[in-house]
Specification:
single chain; about 1050 residues; alpha/beta; six-stranded antiparallel beta sheet; flat; P-loop_NTPase
């Protein structure tokens, strides 16, 4: 082809190396993952790299939405509010474009909020979206064109573009801007042909359409009949409800009649019951009278018996009185003899003189011993005070010693406060079951560790994982299984330590060079613990490989790795180095040292030894004082024993004197008593007088007995009369009760009939209510289908009046409709759609035909302008694409798919092959793999670089799925294309890049990272700082903090 090569308008770069429309700054706030970000891309190839999830695609979304794109374009969310950062109300994007000169800046700001509202600003001034669109179109920025803007979520769509669509997108992105206009102009001639085809199709289908309409009318009539079905059901339910209501009224009438008859029968029964109550009341009255008489009879009989007993008693007293007189004379004679004997014994008692001198001597000795004992007691009291003071000091010393020696409780409480809520219960369980273990069990690990300095405690606590601090350590598998079963609910780990005799501990050696950079110890050297515990900590946390340095080590942290150190602790920072498994690269991280929260309690060794010595001294002093105290106590006891012995001798002498006095006094008292007794016997009452009084009492009692007998006779007569009246009344009550029972039988029978009538009425009432609810439900169902209007009511009158007849009619009409067969069920819809299109095309064609004459001459001219230019454009793309593709794969070509004058079906075909044995195949989502489609897509975009008429291009993660060889070649293509003088600005986003890639001056690296201290390192990196300066900056920030 000899057509001239199509060139885009020449756009020269300014002194700043930017083209008009290039993005020179991106600022976002509260947008997706970012609080605030300011990014200044380069003028050529911008490589935006960062881990997945760090926010690379947020930049793509900001460019698209900030330059007039809609959320649907990105395939991420349907609303603009979804791009506001979670937890914030509003945010914005600010895109600064380079104008026609380096001094001209075009700032486009889009403010968005969570309520899906947008506000546009142009250079700080409020503007409409149309104004923004005009500014963007001036630079031919097309964020909806996949050849210019290919976000991550739409990479797969490029391979799915049809040849026609790919041609349209390419025409808009590259070549002469008049190409799309010429293409649309050439498509006018096709309308007439389309109109004739549509009319011919509709003419062929008119008969079928008429049959479809006839079928639709029959189905509509059947549907109309179906609307009457629920109303017929409603009428049927209404008839059932009225019938149930009549049955309810009839049952109510029968119930009233049964109740009336029952009341009529109950009246004579109630009258008899009243009479029976009167007879029962009379029976009760006579019964009460009879009981009163019987009570009086019993009382009178008891009184007579008591009087008889009293009379008998008086007779017995008379006999006793006679016997007592005889006995009194005998007692007087005995008393006179006893008095004479007692007086004689009193006269014969010898005189007695008490030993007063001996008693006084013993009293003096007792006083002397008591004085000595008081002196010893005073000495004992002084010793007690001294002993108590020393014991108090010993208790205070022991308490302080316990506080320093027993840090277990504090550490257990610290573990509990940190989240291990059941650690104390677990510890107590282990202590309570120690006898069940085969070997020593340690734990929790936190209470087994002793560390001297707080700084080392902070290192150790931060280095060892938290689950180990609350773990228990066993040395036997059986103990481990026992602990695991019983401590499962306490949320603690159980670690079994098996002694390894072949393990050689890492030797501790600090070289002179290491010492010079501030290294002085290793983490496994700064604490004490039982052997098993220490072995577990070293094995689980790698303490043998963690070194400790001074502040000087902070300044020389970069050198630590050269000694093979992978973990370093300094007073302010924790440095860690890790080696990649894949490339062998070493990466470093630094964290601030946190204060210890668990290892809070440690012991001071010097103070502990001092306290132990003081306690030993106090124990010896207390032992000496207690020995002296016991000696004094023994002396006091000897003195008290001697005094007690003398006191006993004195008391014996005193008791002996008192006994002699008591014997003399007793004899005198005995003589006096016998004398008084004899006198009293002589003064006793005369027997004749007493006997006369007893006879008179017996006579009075007999008179009272006679009166009681007369009263008993009277009461027996009354009881007989009352018993006869009571029997008569009871017989009358029994007769009434028999009559009442006979009437109650009749009443119960009537009550049963009344109850049956009541149940029948309730059933009828319930049934009527059920029918009413069914009627209401039928009405609601009918109304939900259709509401009867006057027109519909007239239509219903023409239909069958029973459900069976109506169902039969519906079935007949439906069968008649179904008998009308046709192949295409959508024929009516298609016919009407084509009819509408015919009308539209007729109107349009009438307008177009008026212009046709004038444009027929232009058609050949337009085709002559458009087709050669398009062929030349595709040839240039094919030339670049084929050349680039040969470097990366086997072969590829881009060709124009021509269709004569059918300009709507013109398209671009991309054909590729990746294997020598294969053939060229059209690029699609079915023929090539994901990586092959990515390679083809990026090469096509690179082929457009020199022809594009847009200021920038965005491609998001196009290298995902490529093998390393293709990815390296693709990158070289991008760098070479970006180095061309007239190439547009390009953004390539990727989470990773291969090592040892060849970069050029045209490449700008934009690294996206997230983290708590990213701001300060980013400032250092921005100005070319090193890792050492970054570490120094972080250390300084920690010291300030």
């Amino acid at each position: 082809m000899n057509e001239p090569r199509a060139k885009r308008p020449k756009i020269s770069r300014g002194e700043d190396d930017y083209l008009p429309g290039n993005i020179i700054e991106i600022e976002i706030r509260n947008f997706m993952t970012f609080n605030h970000l300011v990014c200044k891309p380069g003028s050529r190839l911008n490589l935006v790299i960062g881990p997945n999830g760090s926010g690379k695609s947020s930049l793509v979304c900001a460019i698209a939405l900030g330059l007039g794109g809609e959320p649907q374009l990105l395939g991420r969310a349907a609303t603009i509010g979804a791009f506001v950062k979670r937890g914030e109300e509003a945010g914005y994007t600010k895109i600064t474009l380079r104008g026609n000169t380096s001094d001209e800046k075009i700032v486009i700001t889009r403010k968005i909020d969570a309520r899906n509202r947008s506000e546009w600003l142009h250079n700080g001034r409020a503007a409409s979206k149309k104004e923004i669109t005009d500014v963007i179109q001036k630079f031919n920025i097309q964020v909806n064109n996949l050849t210019q803007f290919l976000p991550q979520d739409r990479v797969c769509e490029f391979a799915k573009l049809s040849p026609v669509r790919l041609l349209e997108e390419t025409e808009k992105a590259v070549g002469d801007p008049q190409l799309p206009v010429l293409h649309r102009s050439l498509a006018v001639e096709k309308n007439k042909e389309t109109l004739n085809q549509l009319k011919a199709l509709n003419a062929e289908q008119e008969r079928d359409v008429e049959r479809v309409r006839q079928r639709d009318e029959l189905l509509a009539k059947a549907e109309s009949m179906k609307k009457k079905l629920p109303w017929l059901k409603y009428d049927m339910k209404k008839a059932e409800y009225l019938e149930a209501k009549d049955q309810e009224k009839d049952a109510k009438k029968k119930l009233d009649e049964a109740a009336k008859l029952l009341n009529k029968i109950r009246e004579p029964s109630e009258k008899l019951q009243n009479e029976k109550k009167e007879q029962d009341a009379k029976c009760k009255r006579f019964k009460d009278l009879l009981e009163n008489v019987e009570t009086s009879f019993k009382q009178m009989l008891d009184k007579e018996n008591q009087l008889g007993v009293k009379v008998k008693g008086k007779y017995n007293d008379m006999e006793d009185l006679e016997r007592q007189e005889h006995s009194r004379q005998q007692r007087i004679a005995k008393a006179e003899k006893d008095l004479a004997d007692a007086e004689l014994e009193l006269q014969n008692v010898p005189p007695y003189e008490p030993p007063r001198e001996e008693i006084e001597k013993l009293g003096a000795e007792i006083l002397e011993l008591e004085a000595s004992a008081r002196e010893k007691r005073y000495q004992k009291k002084e010793k007690e005070k001294l002993l108590e003071r020393n014991k108090q000091l010993a208790r205070q010393t022991a308490e302080r010693l316990r506080e320093m020696e027993n840090v277990k409780n504090k550490r257990l409480q610290a573990l509990k406060n940190s989240g291990a809520e059941k650690i104390v219960d677990a510890y107590q369980w282990v202590q309570a079951h120690k006898h069940e273990f085969k070997k020593e069990v340690y734990g929790p690990v936190l209470i087994e560790v002793n560390i001297s300095t707080q700084l080392h405690a902070s290192y150790l606590e931060s280095h060892v994982p938290y689950y180990i601090w609350k773990a228990f350590i066993t040395q036997d598998s059986g103990d481990r299984d026992l602990l695991f079963r019983n401590l499962k609910s306490f949320d603690v780990a159980v670690i079994n330590h098996v002694a390894d005799g072949n393990r050689n501990p890492e030797p501790f050696n600090i070289s002179q060079e290491m010492s010079s950079m501030g290294l002085y110890s290793r983490l496994d050297q700064v604490f004490d613990a039982p052997h098993a515990v220490k072995e577990v900590l070293i094995g689980q946390a790698g303490l043998e490989h963690s070194y400790i340095g001074s502040k000087k080590s902070d300044e020389n942290a970069d050198k630590a790795h050269s000694f093979g150190i992978m973990d370093l602790w300094t007073p302010e920072n924790h440095y860690r180095w890790s080696k990649s498994r894949y490339g062998g690269h070493v990466s470093a991280s630094v964290e601030a040292v946190s204060d210890s929260r668990l290892l809070l309690s440690n012991t001071d060794g010097d103070e502990l030894n001092t306290l132990r010595g003081k306690k030993k001294e106090l124990d010896e002093t207390i032992f000496g004082i207690e020995a002296s105290f016991k000696s004094i106590q023994s002396e006091i006891k000897e003195l008290e024993d001697s005094a007690a012995q003398f006191q006993k001798q004195r008391e014996n002498l005193v008791n002996e004197a008192q006994l002699e006095k008591r014997k003399l006094k007793e004899l005198q008292n005995r003589v006096n008593q016998k004398r008084l007794k004899l006198q009293s016997m002589g003064k006793e009452e005369d027997v004749a007088v007493a006997l006369s009084k007893l006879v008179q009492d017996a006579e009075n009692f007999n008179i009272q007995r006679f009166k009681c007998a007369m009263e008993i006779k009277k009461l027996l007569t009354q009881a007989t009369a009352y018993r006869r009246s009571y029997a008569e009344r009871c017989m009358a009550s029994v007769e009434l009760e028999i009559k009442i029972k006979e009437m109650e039988t009749s009443i119960k029978h009537q009550e049963k009939l009344a109850l049956q009538a009541s149940l029948h009425f309730e059933n009828c009432k319930k049934e009527a209510e059920d029918h009413r609810q069914q009627l209401a439900a039928a009405k609601r169902a009918a109304e939900s289908v259709t509401v009867i209007t006057p027109a519909l009511e007239q239509e219903f009158l023409q239909m069958p009046s029973t459900i069976e007849e109506l169902n039969a009619a519906i079935q007949d009409i439906t069968s008649q409709a179904n008998s009308i067969l046709f192949l295409n069920h959508n024929i009516l819809e298609e016919y009407e759609r084509r009819q509408r299109k015919i009308e539209e095309l007729s109107v349009k064609l009438e307008s177009d035909e008026k212009e046709l004459t004038a444009r027929l001459e232009e058609l050949s001219s337009l085709k002559g302008k458009w087709l050669p230019t398009l062929r030349n454009l595709v040839a240039q793309i094919n030339e670049t694409f084929s050349k680039n593709f040969q470097e990366m794969a086997v072969a590829g070509e881009v060709s124009l798919d021509e269709h004569g004058n059918d300009f709507d079906n013109y398209g671009i075909l991309i054909k590729v092959k990746f294997r020598q044995a294969g053939e060229l195949q059209v690029l699609s989502a079915h023929h090539q793999s994901g990586g092959e489609r990515s390679v083809s897509t990026i090469l096509y975009l690179v082929s457009l670089q020199d022809l594009t008429n847009c200021p920038f291009r965005v491609v998001d993660e196009i290298n995902q799925g490529m093998d390393p060889i293709n990815e390296r070649k693709m990158f070289q293509q991008l760098v070479r294309a970006a180095s061309q003088p007239n190439t547009p600005q390009c953004f390539l986003l990727t989470p990773k890049l291969l090592s040892d890639l060849e970069y050029g001056e045209a490449c700008t690296i934009l690294t996206v990272m997230n983290g708590p201290w990213i701001k300060q390192p980013s400032e250092v990196w921005k100005f070319g700082g090193s890792w050492g300066s970054v570490m120094g900056l972080l250390g300084e920030s920690h010291r300030v903090r």
